[in-house]
Amino acid sequence: MATAADITAMSRAVALAARGLGSTSPNPVVGCVITDAAGEPVGEGFHQRAGGPHAEIHALRAAGGRARGGTAYVTLEPCAHTGRTGPCAQALLDAGISRVVYAVGDPDPRAAGGADTLRRAGVQVEQGLLAEEAEAGNAAWLTSVRLGRPYVLWKYAATLDGRIAAADATSRWITSPEARADVHRLRAEADAVLVGSGTARADDPHLGVRGIDGATQPLRVVLDTNAAAVTPGARVLDASAPTLVAVAEDAPAGHLPEAVVLRLPRAATGPGLDVGALLAALHARGVRSVLLEGGPTLAGAFVAAGAVDKVVGYLAPVLLGAGPAALADAGIPTLSEALRLDLTEAVRIGPDLRVTAVPAPARKGN
User: Fold this and answer.
1) Backbone angles phi, psi at 76, to 5 degrees
2) Environment class of residue 35 by beta-carbon count within 10 Å: exposed (0-12), middle (13-18) or buried (19+)?
3) 3-class DSSP state for residue 127?
4) Is 355 helix (H, G, I), strand (E, B) or coil?
5) Could you tell me if residue 51 is left (phi over 0), alpha (psi between -120 and 50 degrees) or otherwise beta?
6) How far is 141 from 30, CA to CA, in rounded Å?
7) Spatial distance between the Cα atoms of 184 and 181, rounded to a whole number of angstroms
């Protein structure tokens, strides 16, 4: 049975793991805390960047000889394979760790097996402490491994009555500077930011991260089915971050730089591109998390495809009464087929409310 000290140490490991969001892809975020034989914290660390030392290595280096006979608390099962770094399970054995507590098993068959390696060597191994919290913090990577596609977070900003623009199409700014700054945090944590042709045409967005020191710029992706919305000189084509413009296989795209064009099949039904093919192409490029910032039509296509893993809505205390809604047709004809969500957070951001929800397990369809 976990003690209060165990929970405190793993809580710290979960918090440490979050520091790696946005910089470790295509690897997971992982945190680790080492306590000595007397239960005192002597080292901690987190996976900081892909190709760099894993969380366990950082923590063991900080602990030094004090790790011998101690406990390692890790948010993800220590790996058992040699990639760009050595196996963490062996590093823990070499350091003399006598007990390992990890939150979530590694679903990647290439890296799994660390727990068995440790047990065979006589180490006491326990799994599942704060598993829900660790899963939530590592949702993007876990989704990518389990489903073979990137994790998709749909973000939108709307009035309290659900409008994303006025009847005359004006939309800047519905939400506050504080809410808009928080969106840049979401961008910094994502591998790719995605919009559709409507947003590209109306706003000429840049889609880069601003105001966050040291942030890795995400891949900017525009779904421009007919290659008509992104034109030479568009802000999204500047050199500050990588860009892909996804177009239909038969669309004339000679006006775009060849390196940015991604050709995809059209959707089998309705307008637009095949969402599954898009996500597969992004996954093949190492994208493990996507921030969907497009308008209601694009959001509807992703919801209809069962490809939204989290929804973050910024609701402003504003009423319009007319104008486009946040979500267009999502293939839901009746209330009984509505996509039910579990509310996970509601927090005030400046004058606005940020609401976070995830598809309820029975309806997620993944």
Assistant:
1) -130, 145
2) buried
3) strand
4) strand
5) left
6) 11
7) 5
CA distance 327 to 146: 27
Model pTM above 0.85: yes
- For residue 339, what is the DSSP state? -
Task: Pull the structure tokens for residue 307.
Answer: 């490809």
Q: Tens place of pLDDT for every residue, the chain, 366 residues? A: 789 999 999 999 999 999 999 889 899 999 999 999 999 999 999 999 988 999 999 999 999 999 999 999 999 999 987 766 678 999 999 999 999 999 999 998 776 789 999 999 999 999 999 999 999 999 999 999 999 999 999 999 999 999 999 999 888 889 999 999 999 999 999 999 999 999 999 889 999 999 898 888 999 999 999 999 999 999 999 999 999 999 999 999 999 999 999 999 999 887 899 999 999 999 999 999 999 998 999 999 999 999 999 999 999 999 999 999 999 988 899 999 999 999 999 999 999 999 999 998 854 444
Return the number of other C-beta atoms located less than 10 Å from residue 109's C-beta: 9
Catalytic (active-site) positions: 56
The length of the chain in residues reads 366
SS3 category, 156: strand
